[in-house]
Amino acid sequence: MNVLLWVGRCRKRRTGDQFRGDGQGRRGRPDIPTAPATNLLTCAFRPTCTPQMPPSSSLPARDARTVRTRVWDLPTRLFHWLLALTVTGVLATGLLGVMEWHFRLGYGVLTLLLFRLFWGFIGGRWSRFSTFVHGPRSIVAYLRGRVHPDHLIGHNPLGALSVFAMLGLLAIQVTSGLLADDAITYAGPLSHKVSSATASLATSWHATYGKWIVIALVVVHILAVAYYALVRRQQLIGPMLSGDKTVQSDAIVAPSRDDVTSRWLALVLFAGCAGFAFWIASLRP
Length: 285
Fold this sequence. Notes:
Layout: H1 2-19, H2 40-43, E1 66-70, H3 74-96, H4 99-122, H5 136-143, H6 157-179, H7 196-230, H8 237-242, E2 244-248, H9 260-282
Antiparallel strand pairs: 1-2
Helix pairs in contact: 3-4, 4-6, 4-9, 6-7
């Protein structure tokens, strides 16, 4: 009996040493606190238990949601592709010497340039000149990698420079064609309105320098589109076909107006520009 009592006392003493809260367990070892059972599986059987979730920084980040927004309205898209076709035709007919069609396609380019000039003030938001006129600081910041959010929506600073260079050069080329006179076979509709020296200068520019500069700009434009698609993974052709761009859902992007009213306005404007070009063509001697 005494032996049994002694064994019971030893067991009770060891149990108290292990679970007493003075920081020292059996044989002087520090207590190891037991973590509360607050995982999801345990809490499923405890109605009053609140599971301990890992900090937000350790959770895998969700992919940011994206939305599609209208950037290029239908008139701007039609202008872009029609200009590409007419400029290609003008260059081809000029190189092949098919001058009657060269004149006709040239009047088409004139119509499109006039339309784009007016549409740059009254068109959709991202088609207006005010949204892609960038100052020197903005261009330098873009080249250094400090990209403004608007640069990812419409024309970025380099793209804007390309647009203005192309439109300006085509305007000069069309004007020189209207004033040109080779003094042998073909003469522009306005060649008889200027002096022979001016007509000769316009002819020289139109047939040599201007033509090759336009070809160079077209090649640079195609290479830039390929660079953005293959290297920077930014598709420029798709949005110019569909009119929409994919942007982050938390980004504040004002879409371009592209409703029935604006399209009818564009059609009336285009008809007016075409009528002016037709009148210019009628002045040809």
